[in-house]
């Protein structure tokens, strides 16, 4: 891997981790996570909004 690809991969890891933290904190606070964060985690925001409480 070239240096640029390594740094890009590391940046992607931090972006994904940040989105996971932001989404989990929003859910814990009873709020809806941002659609952008859900997309970065591979989730469809429309489907996520249909999830009810149990």
Topology at a glance:
Layout: H1 3-28, H2 35-40, H3 45-49
Tell me what the structure shows.
It is a single chain. The protein has 54 residues and is mainly α. The protein has helices at residues 3-28, 35-40, 45-49. The model has no long low-confidence stretch (mean pLDDT 92).
Beta strand %: under 5%
Helical residue percent?
Answer: 55-70%
- The structure class reads mainly alpha
SSE arrangement, N to C: HHH
Q: What's the number of helices?
A: 3
Strand segment count: 0
Largest sheet: none
Shape: elongated
Question: Nearest-angstrom radius of gyration?
Answer: 14 Å
- Output mean pLDDT: 92
Cα distance, first to last residue? 46 Å
Q: Uncertain runs with pLDDT below 50, 5 residues or more?
A: none
Summary of the model, kept short:
The chain is mostly helical. Helix content is 69%, strand content 0%.
């Amino acid at each position: 891997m070239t240096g640029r690809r390594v740094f890009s991969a590391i940046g992607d890891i931090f972006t994904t981790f940040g989105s996971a933290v932001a989404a989990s904190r929003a859910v814990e606070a009873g709020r809806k996570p941002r659609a952008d964060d859900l997309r970065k985690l591979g989730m469809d925001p429309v489907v996520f909004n249909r999830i009810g409480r149990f």
